[in-house]
Amino acid sequence: MPRGPYICGLDAAMDIVGGKWKALILWELKDQPRRFGQLRQSLTGISEKMLIQRLRELEADEIVYRKVYAHVPPKVEYGLTEAGTALHRALLPLAHWGERRMEALDEQTAGHLTVVDDPSPSPWAARSA
Amino acid sequence: MPRGPYICGLDAAMDIVGGKWKALILWELKDQPRRFGQLRQSLTGISEKMLIQRLRELEADEIVYRKVYAHVPPKVEYGLTEAGTALHRALLPLAHWGERRMEALDEQTAGHLTVVDDPSPSPWAARSA
DNA sequence: GTAACCAGTTACCAATTGGTAAGTAATCCC
DNA sequence: GGGATTACTTACCAATTGGTAACTGGTTAC
């Protein structure tokens, strides 16, 4: 974790949200707080170690809060802070751009039957000579 | 590079712009195309290897174009494609969020003289018990 | 007594990422 | 012939990141 000094605002923002899973965790919390186990289930493929690590980082950056209930078995709740909500709003345009891009990529591969493991470079990836 | 399948649009977007330096390269190209050497100078601290790698990835993703002039000594120009410009626009709110956050962090450390290497956790990073 | 529950923690290992530094290629200029 | 210029390429090494799997702790239910 470099933690600045940052060249620009985007640099600072990417430092927080750029790590693997971090944006996805934010997305999972955008509507309501979640328990640890719920996050682990929603983010299919994440390991417990990673989830904890990322949550701790986001917590240290004041993006998510962590609320522990004195229950047995344990109950811990994660949710967005005010800064986290603002960050989520700032990410909306980027998310939309990504969706439109995914649609475009789908169209690229549509219309071809059995396009599997084609070794030739796709025309849109061609390097300008 | 995982290259999908993506969980959501933000996932796809972060896959492209999440790598180290990538957002900064985008920023450097936002107003006008740049030559390789110019980028290397502007992005202080980047190694030639990294710069090339990131540029190639952004090029393969159709975010930047690469134009080679048949000159000696060589001249290569990098600039934003249409998709790259759209991506830059989508990143503006995030950049603003980052700027406001940097200001907030500056205010945190302002007012203290010789606040250097303080081992105690800052209050805004405290973990909720 | 012991199994289940939840939210972690820990140890160990593999893969990816990033840095340094030297080399390459083509041409012009002296 | 030799140096300067520009945009890379390559080899090698260190650091960071990420994965797997086993273990912990306190309480309740059987």
Automatic annotation (TrEMBL), chains A, B:
InterPro entries: HTH_HxlR, WH-like_DNA-bd_sf, WH_DNA-bd_sf. SUPFAM superfamilies: Winged helix' DNA-binding domain. Keywords: DNA-binding, Transcription, Transcription regulation. PROSITE patterns: HTH_HXLR. Residues 8-106 form the HTH hxlR-type domain. It holds the Pfam family HxlR. Residues 110-129 are annotated as: Disordered. This is HTH hxlR-type domain-containing protein.
